[in-house]
Amino acid sequence: MAYDRNLIRNFCIIAHIDHGKSTLADRMMELTCTVSKRDMEEQLLDSMDIERERGITIKASAVRMFYTHTDGKVYMFNLIDTPGHVDFTYEVSRALAACEGAVLVVDATQGIEAQTLANVYLAVDHGLEVLPVINKIDLISADPDRVMHEIEDEIGLPAEHAPRISAKNGVNIEQVLSGIVKELPPPGGDPSAPLKALIFDCFYDNYKGALSYVRVFDGTVKEGMRIRSMATGREFDVTEVGVFTPTAKPTNELTAGEVGYIAASIKSVAETKVGDTLTSAENPTPHPLPGYKQVNPMVFCGIYPADGAHYDDLRDALDKLKLNDASLSYEQETSAALGYGFRCGFLGLLHMEIISERLEREFDIDLITTAPSVIYKVKMLTGEEITIDNPAGLPPMTEIDYMEEPVVSAVVLTPKEYVGTIMDLCVEKRGVFVDMKYLDTTRVSLHYTLPLNEIIYDFFDQLKSRTRGYGSFDYELSGYEKSDLVKLDFLLNGELCDALSTIVHRDRAYPKARAVTEKLKDVIPRQQFEIPVQAAIGGKIIARETVKAVRKDVLAKCYGGDITRKKKLLEKQKEGKKRMRQMGSVSLPSDAFMSVLRING
Amino acid sequence: MSAVYIHIPYCVRKCLYCDFCSVPKDDSAGEYASAVAREIELRTKKLKAKERCQTVFFGGGTPSILPAEDLITMLDAVRAAFEMDDDAEISLECNPATANLAELIRLKEAGFNRISIGLQSADDGLLKTVGRAHSCADFLKCFMDAREAGFENINVDVMHGLPNQTMEQYADTLRKVCDLDPEHISSYALILEEGTPLFRMERACEITLPTEDETYDMQDYGLSYLPERGYSRYEVSNFAKPGYECRHNLVYWDNKPYWGFGVAAHSSMPKDGAWQRSANTEDINAYLRKLRRGKLPTEDEITLFASEESFECVMLGLRKVEGMNKADFETRFGVSIAQAFPKAFAEVESCGWWSETDTHLALTPKGMDMLNTVLTLFR
Predict the structure, then answer these.
(1) Integer Cα distance of A19 and A111 in angstroms
(2) The predicted structure's pLDDT at residue A37
(3) Is A464 helix (H, G, I), strand (E, B) or coil?
(4) Which end of chain B is more exposed for a tag (fewer CB within 10 A), N or C?
């Protein structure tokens, strides 16, 4: 028996990191008795440790709850959680497409941030009704009136009656629930039409295989039905349909307007494409839902086990992560300096950090990650065009006509006093100014075009530190531009260290070469022989430092009481040597290697 | 044949770089000598025959901080428990400003025949920086008193690599010390030990140490200057006039047996067919309490496998300029050094870091500089 569609509300929560999305979701689940307070683990929607620690959500989830409104009717709420970071814009757009409405949470102390704005525009573009909510009114520095005007002026949403809440303390949450019923529209759709279900996320379950999170727009899906992916043409038999409450609970069917999951013995999440339309194999719809895109990685780096013996462990770990993360790509690669490892592709820098952190934390593998790279287009003198995501694969400059690099259109929101420093930052990062707008008397929106390879290092960190945490940033790929790029190589004792090679703009090559060689001089432990550390473009050396040979390595004292302790010291020295990476004839500790990669020139 | 070490933990105040067992002199000091005497008695009374003793070394801490009579009480206990050689070397570590002439005379009469004085630097500013409780003038007086008391074997400790120390300051210290004509000089590089105040000060950038190269330059200067003044290097940090090498310390470097008495003292000797190292408690109160009750203060006992024991022989033996005695090693382990460590032997050989004579295997000066690297090959 299908639920009355007029009593269904499908919505998501849009909020900046730390503005209280997960806390609000928790309170809503408590109030609707979806979870009892006793079972409540703080912020249920964020199920991964790293998410919880960083206060961000990586995997979207969908939770069904039932709310009894003052009109006496029981409403079915489907809360669809959205990832909150710039790397996951496409995933966000698919989650939004599954909803009719959005709750916009704005921090009463901070106001609107760049990503929030970007996501609200995205929601409005998808035709969503937006219910603004002002959170954190319990804080002393809260200024709900100012934030209310900001919402009205910047987004153009009436906010006078926006619920003013404290999700943390559970204040006025009822107003939000009631607002969802009154302000957000119910879903449409035809339960008797051919099935049309949008996959907006997926999750790998050890027993059920890949689960697709879907929003059914038309028709009905139930166990035993044969379904077809309209993106790949592949067909599957549905083994289970269900909803999250928030734990998975099988149901008889999912019908037009509803949100839930489909299990169909799908082996890997790579086969469930976010944005794909599922339809009935027997009675297919002729038109898929719009908006499907194949997501491609934008940032690449090499990931190597710090200890070469852990190569197989690393491969197994990547295989496991891939089960749950279709946007992660990797293939085996070999580096002369680092041995066997993987070339991995990510949606963005945060995605890269999350993966490497999970590898180290959940799988306990020490890693060496090489400098991140973007995809360059290389036009050869022969007229052929190739793409390069690894500096090691760049052909000799003499065979190259010109190169193009990806550029992004970036928007920075910042308090006005930091405009100068942000402009400096953007100029340092080869940014081209587009325009600047005052959002109100205190806040400014800066629009720049920036090369992607300049923002994948530390742009975000720099932005945060230069604006004392108040600046925020959003970007999207805008295309490729011709650029004067060179490959910067580093040589240790005359031998090329391929893992350090990087593609940079010619103007940035000299400062970068100097910074890296100086750093290498500091971090390479003295060895039996003198080690020249050189930076080169093509065959030309542009910077040089020297690591002097070790002169002495001897303990000044060793008497009767020292012997056991001194022996341990030698033990430690020996262990330290074992952990060194051999770069040709030069030994380098893994952490030294990482510290060099962190340099941004 | 044995050597005896007696640890005296008391100090006027602890130097900022020191990580030895040392405590302020307090009421417990009065009880200490009798406690040590008790330990000597307890630990040796089960021996079937008295062992011969060739050296006794009172180290610290600051042994000279105790009254001469206390030191003599402990020495007498050693004499009672061991068969003391007539020409035994009996050393006392002494910090300037803690010993007076009368006491030094008394100690000489009681049989002490070697004094080791900690000067560290002739620069009063540097002494203050590292928390030494004396001046250079105090040292001079102490040295003169020791000579006047009749000591004909005196060692002076000096250090390089001290905070902001210059080559000139170090050279000046060496010159002043050599001018006094002691029989023995120990010249150490400062070791920044974790947990010491100096370590924390360096981390907090409150002090600046000389660079690696400046420190090595000082060391190299000493290596060439001291022989010019008649002091031959016989160990990594030790220099002596001919015949005045410290016999007690040679026992350590030859990895021969020694008894350690007192708080935190270490012992090393064969027991039941295997080599054993042991250490006394580092807690002064626990030490005194145990001996009051007639219990042994030993806390750590490790029995070494032959492979460990032979490594220790290499680790210690190669510290000596003379090197390791090949025959001694073979007698002790039944195999030659080359047989015991074939891989390391070949590697050190190929680096040219040692030279072999009929009797000894000794590191070259370069090999000596790289001793730790050499030793890691043997592990």
Answers:
(1) 9
(2) 54
(3) helix
(4) N
CB contacts < 8 A (A, B): 87
Compute the nearest-CA separation of B244 from chain A (Å): 18
CB contact under 8 A, A566 and B189: no
- Pair A13, A120: CB distance under 8 Å: no
Q: What is the DSSP string of B171-226?
A: HHHHHHHHHH--SEEEEEE----TTSHHHHHHHTTSS-PPPHHHHHHHHHHHHHHH
Shortest CA gap B36–chain A (Å):
17
Average pLDDT over residues B46-56: 93
Do A563 and B252 make contact, defined as CB atoms within 8 angstroms?
yes
At residue A458's C-alpha, the angle toward residues A455 and A461, to 5°, is 115
Q: Do A554 and B264 touch (CB under 8 A)?
A: no
CB contacts, 8 Å: B237 with chain A? 556-557
- Structure tokens belonging to residue A391: 């500096």
Q: Are B59 and B2 in contact (CB under 8 A)?
A: no
Pairing of strands A196-205, A277-280: antiparallel
> What distances in angstroms separate CA B15 from CA A294, B20, B133, B194, one per listed residue?
69, 10, 8, 14
CA B352 to chain centre: 30
Whole-structure pTM value: 0.67
Is it the case that residue A576 has pLDDT exceeding 90? no
Instruction: Check if the beta carbon of residue A278 is closer than 8 Å to that of residue A195.
Output: yes
Question: Which two three-digit tokens encode residue B347?
Answer: 């590697």
Please state, in angstroms and rounded to a whole number, the distance separating the CA atoms of residues A502 and B132: 53
Sequence letter at residue A494: G
Distinct helix (H) and strand (E) counts, chain A: 14, 32
Check residue B122 and report its DSSP letter: S
Nearest to A303 by CA among A294, A314, A290: A314
Distance from CA of A561 to the nearest CA of B (A): 5
Distances (CA, A) of A330 to A86, A271, B1, B336: 21, 16, 68, 54
Whether the CB-CB separation of A350 and A260 falls below 8 Å is answered with: no
CB A490 within 8 A of CB A534: yes
Write out the two tokens for A82: 């959205």
Helix axes A89-97, A114-125, angle to 10 degrees: 40
- pLDDT tens digit sequence for A141-174: 999 999 999 899 888 889 999 999 999 999 999 9
Which pLDDT band holds residue A586 (cuts at 50, 70, 90)? confident
Q: Which residues contact A300 (CB under 8 A, 6 or more apart)?
A: A343, A344, A345, A346, A372, A373, A374, A375, A389, A390
